[in-house]
Description:
Layout: H1 15-18, H2 22-25, H3 27-35, E1 41-42, H4 57-68, H5 81-93, E2 103-106, H6 108-120, E3 126-131, H7 136-143, E4 147-154, E5 160-161, H8 163-168, E6 174-180, H9 192-204, E7 208-212, E8 236-241, E9 254-258, H10 265-276, H11 283-294, H12 299-319, E10 324-325, E11 334-335, E12 338-339, H13 347-358, E13 360-361, E14 363-364, E15 377-380, H14 385-405
Parallel strand pairs: 1-13, 3-4, 3-6, 6-7, 7-8
Antiparallel strand pairs: 2-9, 4-5, 8-9, 10-12, 11-15, 14-15
Helix pairs in contact: 4-11, 5-11, 6-7, 6-10, 12-14, 13-14
Bound molecules: pyridoxal-5'-phosphate.
Pyridoxal-5'-phosphate is lined by residues 46, 108-110, 134, 180, 184, 212, 214, 241, 243, 249, 254.
Amino acid sequence: MSTSKLATTIPVARRVNAFSYAIRNIVVEAQRVEAAGTRVRYLNVGDPNAFGFKTPPHLITAVERAMRDGHNGYGPSPGIAAAREAVAAELTSHGFPITADRALITAGTSEAIDLVLGALVDAGGEVLVPMPTYPLYTAVLAKLDARARYYRTDPNRGWQPDLDHLKSLVTRDTRALVVIDPNNPTGATYPTSTRRELLEFAERHNLVILADEVYGDLGHDGPIDPIGKLDPDAAIITFSSLSKAYLAPGWRTGWMGVGRSPRLDPALAAIKKMADGRLCSTVPMQYAVAEALHGDRSHQPIFRAELKTRAAITVESLTAMPGMSCVAPIAGFYVMPKLALPRGRTDEDYVLGLLRATGVLCVYGSGFGMPPEDGCFRIVFLASPEELTAIYKLMADSTTDYLARG
Ligand SMILES: Cc1ncc(COP(=O)(O)O)c(C=O)c1O
C-alpha cells in the first residue's frame, strides 16, 4: 500500500554536505560539456592506465593464478601473510623496519586512510593536513565530524611546509599530522631538514604522523625514502599501494605499515578491530603484492623517465603562459600552477571557463583546500608529450582570452 500522499523525499545525513571530493565532483560539468559536443580531455584523475600505461604483466598473471587456484573466498582481515610479509620486507629495506604483523593490506591507500582516521580520531578531534591537500583526508574527517586544520605549504619555497604556521595550529584536540611526501597535488618532496623538523614537532606533541608515501617510487630521479627512515622508532603509520607505482589503480590494493614503536600498539589493535568489520580487501589482488614488491620492477625506471619528460614539457609550457607560474614537480604526475586572477575571480571560475572553452578538465585549487582567489589548479600530466603539447596550446590561448576579459 502506498502512503504517497504523506511521503516526502528520504532525508540524507547532514555530513554529506561537508563531504567533498572535487576531483570527481567536477566530472558532472565535464559530462555536460561533452554532451554539448566538445571533446573533453580528462586531466582530473591521477590514473596512469587511463593514459595508456600498462599494468606489468607478471602482476596480472599473479592475480589470474590466484583466481584459478581458488583464492576467491574471504581472506584474513589484515591481509594474506605473503602480502603482509612483502610489505614489511619492503619497508624494512627502505630503512623503516617493521614486522609483518604491523602491515595491513587494504582496498587502496584510500581505505587505509579511512580505517586509520576512524580508529584514531573522535568527533571533534583535529588533524593537521597540508594545504593544498589530497582531499580524501578532509572528506573522511568530515564524515567523522572531526576537523581538518590546514598547515600552509609555500609555493614560493617549492611548496615546502610552513613550519611556523604548522606549530601555531596545535591544540588539545590535535590527534595526527598528515605528511604527503612526495606530494599530490604539488609534486614536491621535502628535504631531510624539513622532515626532521616534522618528526620533532610530532614527537613533542605526541602526534602520530600519517605518512602518505603513495608516490615514493615515483621521484623523477629515483625512489624517495620514507620519512620513517630518519627515525624508525617514531610514531609513524605509512601508506602506499599498487595504484600508482605498479600501475594498477583499479585493483584497489594498498597497504599500511604501522611503526614498531610500542606507543602505536593500541592504535594497531584499534585499526585491526576496525578492519575486521569490512572482512578483507580484494583477495586475488593481494597475491600481486609480493610479486610487485619482490619481483621485476623494470617498468619503474621507464615510468619515471616518462614522467620527467612530461614534467619538463609542462613546466616550460605553463611558465610561458601569461600570468601563470608553477613550481617544477620532482615526483609523481601532478603540478599545481597558479594564475594571477583578475580581481573578483576564483580558481573554479577559471577552471570551468577553461573546460567550457577547450574541453580541458583540471581541478580547481580550492578542491584541495587552497583559497579560491589564489588562482591555483591541478593538472595531471600523464597524457603523451604530443597530446600535452596540444593541450597546453589550447590552455595558453584560452588563458590569454580569459585574462583579456578581466
Ligand atoms: C596522496 C594520495 N593518497 C592516496 C591516494 C589514494 O590512492 P589509492 O588508489 O591507493 O587508494 C591518492 C590517489 O590519487 C593520492 O594521490
